[in-house]
Design brief:
This is DUF2750 domain-containing protein. By secondary structure, the protein is mainly β. The chain is 0% helix and 49% strand. The two termini are 32 Å apart.
Length: 129
């Protein structure tokens, strides 16, 4: 699983007896200490990763610098959810710091996810020929 973050870093937590291992995007860096800050969902605030006893390490994540509309593009999988082909609208494109673009598709039930594993990305008005 990849995390997209404004900083390009992800904090990895190994888990405890009461909480499973998890990943959180690094939102910022403490200006005084330089420690990575992540959102604490219980407090609704940024906290240093070192506040958690199960903090393990940081990993490079995906740094997103912009988001642009899908523009009519579509993602197609030859074998969809039930083995039949499926095509979904590209809702948006995530633009990475290195210039790559990741399509974000929306399924018929409203589920939004990356479509980077699609078999084909279809341009607007392009058929499946």
């Amino acid at each position: 699983m990849r995390y997209f973050s404004a900083t390009g870093w992800t904090a990895i937590f190994s888990g405890t007896e009461t909480e499973i291992g998890r990943m959180r995007p690094v939102e910022a860096w403490d200006p005084a200490t330089g420690v990575a800050l992540v959102v604490d969902p219980q407090r609704g605030a940024l906290r240093p990763v070192t506040d958690w006893p199960d903090f393990s390490h940081l990993e490079r994540g995906e740094r997103v610098v912009s988001v642009i509309p899908g523009g009519g593009w579509r993602a197609h999988w030859n074998d969809g959810y039930d083995g039949t082909p499926v095509t979904e609208a590209v809702l948006a494109w995530l633009i990475h710091a290195d210039g790559r673009a990741t399509p974000i598709s929306v399924g018929p039930d409203g589920t939004v996810d990356t479509a980077e594993l699609a078999d084909r990305i279809l341009a607007p008005e392009q058929d499946l020929d």
